[in-house]
DNA sequence: GAAAATTAGACAATCGATTGCGTTAATTGC
DNA sequence: GCAATTAACGCAATCGATTGTCTAATTTTC
């Protein structure tokens, strides 16, 4: 059974004895069509249940009102909030969003980028996967002057737009906070170092230690592949079994931080007295775990909205691709909860 | 600055001295094109970086390989996992997904449905909003023989596909479990009763009570608008301040269940000894809260995959719209954790 | 009152891929 | 050896909306 064919402006034109061009212009309130005609056309369109075919319009204009979104995994708190922000800002302006996830597999990311390109998105918003080191699959967009916005996990050098948080400062502040709470040996759960977010967080951590006259002990820095709960548990155990265990842990995400808390509790270690813990992201679980996890909050929704605005700004103003990376850095917020509060202030 | 125009099959045709139709067929391995020509065309396409214009193909075929997804909020654990499942199954078959969220506002849902329709999606997957009572905005799809799949929150009577869990049985089992654990006065946090999911959960709760010879006390059933943490807290306080408080609560979602646990603890009520609690959804927070929350797990990802399969099955086999609601009911799984475990079995 | 200007709308090309049908040329059949 | 197939490819219409250009009718101008 085939799809029924739809009612088009040609059908309307025939019915009203106007030309298709007049119908098209009338529906768009073009100035060269009389008010009377516009009223007639719109009324008939309404009655007949006419709906424009966006595919046709997009093809003709060589421009779809669709924004491509390429992420690693949709079902992660930060990502889903990001997408939510993107969608809200987009739909407000009449744009649709086409979503693709790579599941952190590089090959999928390349395939998805192609698919989004083929769909002629008017712009693309992407957050890089764990495996991604080359970004050649985004060059096709730039070549066609289609704006690319990288968000959160961004490449080092790509002449385009970027929306990030200040990972360095956030990490610096989080670590400083632990130091202020009396921690002397602070461990760090780091993520893959080819990704800016984890690299910057580590840098902030190291610099905070140095600035406060604390030694940087490489044995306290554990770099994980995926920052999963399992890795968090294993690393916590490993750290605590050494002769000189840490008295604080700055984790690159909440998943490992919560995992650390649960593991420490299981081991009978007091939090925050013996080991203070701080995470990153402000996932829902962070406020539920006991003791509640101190963390760094991402303005995920706003980041998404900003990404959309970047795309629209480029598209509507017909700007050229920026000659340099045009970067928006958003502020983070340190949320201090029980897992790191040793002193009453 | 305009978008550059792209390299098309016409450009390829000119370059290779073939007709556009031959190019088109060669790229699709059409049998009437010689292997030699196919090789030549594909090689040149690759070299020139040719990319098909999906808009053009879709317009011509009156069929886009795009599935529309209409949900209430993207950034909710269940929904984002659902979408993830939809996307995985879709991309595997070369389909894209266009996402729109209503934020639980009926007007948005109608607008989004229109937008997805205008984009000529080949099918639509929808979960109804809290406010939604009429579903006329989905009729346009059926009229055009575009498959509609309702998932989780589904309308009562719509001749189309449906993917749900067995809310009744899940609720029945959850309540029975509480009874088995010795609860005699079980409260229920119910959701809006015009939605199937909450109506069925309530029914399952009521029937389990009846079947076990317990009285159904309307004062123990609290119907909430949005099942938010705030409502959960307020309702818990209200319940516990009565002269005859409950000794168990079956909550329609995890948000209110966790909220109940936190509130009970704040009030000094022992869980599960004085009040046992069980939730619904298996959100990440449920395993983190203390005591860990017993709950009902949704197979969210699988539901998403199944939705996509339903669409593809309809599209690929060119089936007609089902004459009756064609319903897939998935099994749930009762996860028993500390919040409801009174007896050692 | 005739030329100029404005108004209202029609014509036809265009976007890029697809496909039914037609046309050669090569191959097969008897 | 000639008709009948088959193979390989071209022609041109089509999907539905958009838009530059053109035309006819009406209004304005001096």
Secondary-structure element series of chain A: HHHHEHEHEHEEHEHEHEHEHEHEE
Largest interface: A-B, 68 and 68 residues
Averaged pLDDT of chain A, please? 94
Give the strand content of chain A.
5-15%
User: How many domains of chain A?
Assistant: 3
Task: Specify Rg of chain A, calculated over alpha carbons.
Answer: 26 Å
CATH architecture assignment name of the largest domain in chain A? 3-Layer(aba) Sandwich
| Spatial strand order of the main sheet of chain A | 2-1-3-4-5-11
Query: What is the tally of beta strands of chain A?
Result: 12
CATH topology call of the largest domain in chain A: Rossmann fold
**Category by helix and strand content of chain A:** alpha/beta
CATH class of the largest domain in chain A: Alpha Beta
Percent of residues in helices of chain A: 40-55%
Tally of alpha and pi helices of chain A: 13
Organism (chains A, B): Leeuwenhoekiella nanhaiensis
Pfam families (chains A, B): LacI, Peripla_BP_3
GO molecular function (chains A, B): DNA-binding transcription factor activity; transcription cis-regulatory region binding
Keywords (chains A, B): DNA-binding, Transcription, Transcription regulation
Give keywords.
12 strands, alpha/beta, transcription regulation (chains A, B), four-stranded parallel beta sheet, 13 helices, 345 residues, homodimer, six-stranded parallel beta sheet, Rossmann fold, elongated, DNA-binding
């Amino acid at each position: 059974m085939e799809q029924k064919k739809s009612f088009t402006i040609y059908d309307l034109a025939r019915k009203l004895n106007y030309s298709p061009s007049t119908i098209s212009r009338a529906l768009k309130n073009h100035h060269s069509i009389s008010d009377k005609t516009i009223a007639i056309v719109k009324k008939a369109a309404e009655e007949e249940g006419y709906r424009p075919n966006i595919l046709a319009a997009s093809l003709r204009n060589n421009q779809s009102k669709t924004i491509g979104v390429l992420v690693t995994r949709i079902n992660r708190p930060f990502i889903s909030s990001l997408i939510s922000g993107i969608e809200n800002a987009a739909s407000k302006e009449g744009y649709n969003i086409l979503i693709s996830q790579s599941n952190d597999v590089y090959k999928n990311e390349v395939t998805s980028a192609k698919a989004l390109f083929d769909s002629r998105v008017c712009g693309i918003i992407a957050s890089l996967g764990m495996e991604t080191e080359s970004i050649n699959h985004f060059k096709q967009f730039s070549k066609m002057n289609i704006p690319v916005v990288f968000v959160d996990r961004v490449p080092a050098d790509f002449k385009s737009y970027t929306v990030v948080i200040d990972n360095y400062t956030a990490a610096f502040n989080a670590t400083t906070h632990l130091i202020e709470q009396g921690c002397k040996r602070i461990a760090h759960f780091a993520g893959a170092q080819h990704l800016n977010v984890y690299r910057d967080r580590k840098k902030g951590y190291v610099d905070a230690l140095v600035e406060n006259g604390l030694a940087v002990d490489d044995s306290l820095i554990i770099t994980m592949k995926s920052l999963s709960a399992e890795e968090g548990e294993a690393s916590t155990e490993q750290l605590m079994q050494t002769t000189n265990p840490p008295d604080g842990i700055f984790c690159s995400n909440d998943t490992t931080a919560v995992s650390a808390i649960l593991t420490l509790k299981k081991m009978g270690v007091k939090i925050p007295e013996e080991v203070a813990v701080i995470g990153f992201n402000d996932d829902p679980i962070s406020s539920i775990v006991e003791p509640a996890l101190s963390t760094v909050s991402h303005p995920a929704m706003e980041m998404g909205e900003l990404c959309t605005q970047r795309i629209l700004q480029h598209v509507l103003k017909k700007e050229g691709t920026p000659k340099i990376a045009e970067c928006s850095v958003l502020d983070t917020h340190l949320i201090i909860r029980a897992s790191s509060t040793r002193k009453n202030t």
